[in-house]
Write a structure and sequence with these properties.
The protein is of the alpha/beta class and about 150 residues long. It has two domains: about 80 residues, no CATH class; about 50 residues. Helices cover about 55% and strands about 5% of the residues. The chain has a four-stranded parallel β-sheet, with helices on both faces. α6 runs antiparallel to α7. The protein is globular, with a radius of gyration of 19 Å. The C terminus is likely disordered. It comes from Mesorhizobium plurifarium.
């Protein structure tokens, strides 16, 4: 099976709605980040590619008629070359609207995790307060999805 539709838009630009629409219109199943999260083999294949492995697009998209969202959106140029007959769809939203959509689910999780780590570091009987503060700060930096603080 060859990809018939390639979605080139970033996540949080309506890709899940597009996935549903493509499936309803007969272009499903549609590959989406949710597929990667749900299937261990998909995780393994995409991680191998991200680590510099050679892309095996036929294996990565075996059984799919379309793709949207990450990680395929990152490789849109390559996919358009490999599947020149595929239709290309760009989902888009303004940067402000995108950030608002991104911030709600992702920054809230980071803030909750940061709050838990700060609470845990304060209650740890084995760490000095200075060490606990440094650990909490390091954790908060590693959890930020972007350079802009949530």
């Amino acid at each position: 099976m060859s990809l018939m539709v390639i979605g080139t838009g970033f996540g949080r630009t309506g890709t899940d709605s597009m996935r549903e629409a493509l499936t309803m219109l007969g272009f499903g199943p549609c590959h989406h980040m949710s597929e990667v999260m749900a299937h261990a083999e998909q995780k393994r294949l995409w991680r191998a590619l991200a680590r510099g492995g050679a892309p095996d697009w036929a294996q990565l998209f075996a059984g799919y008629k379309s793709c949207v969202d990450w990680p395929s959106a990152f490789y849109w140029r390559e996919l358009i070359e490999v599947y020149p007959q595929a239709r290309v769809i760009l989902t888009w939203r303004s940067p402000e609207s995108w950030w608002e959509s991104f911030e709600k689910p992702f920054c809230r999780r980071s803030s909750a995790a940061l709050t838990r780590s700060r609470w845990a570091s304060r209650s740890s009987p084995t760490k000095s307060s200075g060490d606990a503060h440094r650990i909490a700060r390091a954790r908060s930096r590693s959890m930020r999805p972007m350079s802009r603080p949530c």
